């Protein structure tokens, strides 16, 4: 899960597929032959080349193709001045429109993703416990102790860019200076006094022994009650 920075004013996340492998046509052919040894790579590749040539010719003629894998047809983009106007390459363009077919739609419904840790090394905040109330991932008690658990949490306390921060609803960032324990999997701190009521986002920033500052965020808002 990664923060979606394109959605201004919202705290939302987006999921990215990890370790996506790219396959060339020849590699797909190899997998087909492995599945059906009676076929040769040359025969499979030759058949696929003919299929792709025919599809391309059908679309070039302005027709459409529907297969279990995809639906394809061409369209023309650009504005025409009047009914007598002509197709001009500096104003118009032929585009190929592709949509998944029934086979791919069924595949998408069949897939059951499972959540894994991000491959990008960054602080990962799993739990925030307000020790005054015992509440987890919920409240902040100003002046009281709290515990953060996760991975890659340790930071350089001498670097003002690193540490634990609270971000208010108006995007003000408050650095928490009272940290009692600062290790890889746990941070113990004292919540600042004088916090205004409202929601806060918990952030841990660390360079993780690199030159680049990495940021981890708790996926729950923490609230200071009135």
Strand-pairing-aware structural class: alpha+beta
Oligomer: single chain
* CATH class categorisation of the largest domain: Few Secondary Structures
The CATH topology of the largest domain is what? Answer: HU Protein, Chain A
Distance between the termini: 32 Å
> In the residues, how many domains can be counted?
2
Biggest beta sheet summary = 5 strands, antiparallel
- The backbone outline, from C-alpha atoms, is elongated
Instruction: Count up the helices.
Output: 3
In the predicted model, the low-confidence regions spanning at least 5 consecutive residues are none
The percentage of residues in β strands lies in 25-35%
> Rounded to an integer, what's the Rg over CA atoms?
28 Å
Query: How do the SSEs run, as a string of H and E?
Result: EEHHEEEHEEEEEEEEE
CATH structural architecture of the largest domain? Irregular
Helix proportion range: 10-25%
Please specify the SSE layout and strand pairing.
Layout: E1 2-3, E2 13-14, H1 25-35, H2 41-60, E3 65-66, E4 70-77, E5 93-100, H3 102-110, E6 124-130, E7 145-151, E8 163-168, E9 173-176, E10 179-182, E11 186-190, E12 198-206, E13 214-217, E14 222-224
Task: Give me some keywords for this one.
226 residues, alpha+beta, HU Protein, Chain A, Coagulation Factor XIII, Chain A, domain 1, 2 domains, 5-stranded antiparallel β-sheet, 4-stranded antiparallel β-sheet, 31% strand, elongated
Give the gist of this structure.
This protein has 226 residues and is α+β, with helices and mostly antiparallel strands.
